[in-house]
Predict the 3D structure of the following.
Amino acid sequence: MARKTRDVLSVEWVRLELLRTAYSTRGGVFARMDPRMVLAWYLLAALAPWFTHNLTVLMILFVMGAVAVVLARVGPLVLGLFLVGLIGNAVGLFAAAFVFGGDLGTLVALGELNLKLGAVSMASMAAFVSLEPEQLSDALLALRAPELLAFGVSYGYRMLPILVDEYVTVFDGQLLRHAPVERRGVLGWRVILRWSTLAVTAFYPIMLNTAKNVRTTVEALETRGFTYGAHHRAGRTLRLAYLKVTSWDIVVLAGSVVAVVLAYWTGAQFPIHR
């Protein structure tokens, strides 16, 4: 059991999970959709919670977000970070309200805020975990977003595995060059302090390597005519030719619209009063 836990929490596992998340290798319902329709679904799911204070509607939208996360097959790393953040934020806000004399109304208002943030966060996970870098970039380009924005999104995703690999290499090199601590201390605090220090200092060489990679990539792209191809109409048409809205896209988006409307109708019929 201890060995399995150590394998799951290793740096290599985190790196692989980040790559699976960035490159949408798990599949799911939204991965089969046109990227433009995925962005439309995301706008619907992300904006719907902010137009109401009805707790019934917010709870339904929160459940819908959880269902979307399951259908999108979000990985355990991202889901775990989301749960830790959401629970930590809720506990912190409730503790602050209690310390500064908040009443039941304050707790309900904070609960409403956490429901909204949770629903929007789950919609974000479901949408962007299902999009590959090229798909997201092409969807932004098709929606007339600036060419540099579309390129920046694609480039950021492409640089992610390189940065992770370089960070792991630098971190392992620093571990080999530093002698282990002589005494672990209570609960191994000296070991934790050493690892934390090395984890922070490992970022400095990464900054220099990133600057070198950016320059090399920009020069390679300009040599291949990236700027011209992004602005030229024929180049854009050729690049975006594979985008096609199918009946599956329409069914998913229409079903989501109906679900949001039903959530608001249910909230109007069965409101939860503060």
Summary: Residues 18-131+245-274 form one domain. DSSP finds 13 helices and no strands in the chain.
